[in-house]
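Researcher: I'm preparing a figure for a lab meeting and need a structural model of a single chain. I don't have an experimental structure, so a prediction will have to do for now. The sequence is pasted below. Please return the structure as tokens so I can convert it later.
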Amino acid sequence: MEIKWIEDFIALARYQSFSRAAEFRNVTQSGFSRRIQSLEQWVGADLVDRSGFPPTLTPAGQLFRDAAADILDKLFDTRAIIRTEQRIAGKSLQIAAGHTIALNFLPAWLRALAKHAGEVRARVIPANVHDSILMLVNGNCELMFAYHHPQLPLHLDPQKYEYVTVGVDTFMPVCKPNQRLAPTHRLPGARDRPMPFIAYTDTSYFGRCFALLMERSKASPALRLHYESDMAEVVKKLVLEGEGIAWLPKSSIAADLDAGDLVAAGGAEWQLGLELRVYRDLGNRSELLDTIWRHLRASSAPAE
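Model: Understood. Here is the structure written out token by token.
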């Protein structure tokens, strides 16, 4: 049993709608439904009555909701106490970020920050989008970095959480080159010879980026699932080993593209532009955070 299943269930009880609860939880509706079913299998009873609209909780679901909410509150309170005790002493930041951002963006960003704010000790906690948001909302980090696309919003209350755009990225299809330095696989591909595809899980952020691209695409690519992962670094390694075609953020493969180890497997119509944003809780008024935030806002302001 996973904690996120309980959080999904509590969201469903609140919204009484699979689609709205899935949107709130930043997952696809099909992925959300599977997780609710997994929770029901673990409990051993139906928790949701799906026979009417809106869906309602069964008696077992009502009993489980009360216990689950109490358990989650205690778990998160205990985690907050532990994380507070584990914070770095002195002038420090706790940062939540996706794995790709933590590996490919934050090291240089922190070096640049030191030139303006002096030495800042930072603890970077790589996490998926959902866990990063929870860290920010629960006060377990000062800054949260995440990708953004207008059609894949994070649903953070703008009255409570502010953001600054600190970069842009491109989610693009790539593969190994052949001996002529041309793409081994080229989109959209041929139906009689579908290309081996290294995919993301449906519930990951990049999985949702890929789904959005497919919704917008005029032509359906000829792909056959070869591998699947929720981490871009795993996907990247498989592509570099020649296992197939995959979509990756350009920031994570810039050196590989320059060296010719990877090549684009399709044109701009197969790409998705993303913003890189950093978020803060407006209720956190630490002097260090305010200083850093003023610098970020000034750096992101358009030149006149």
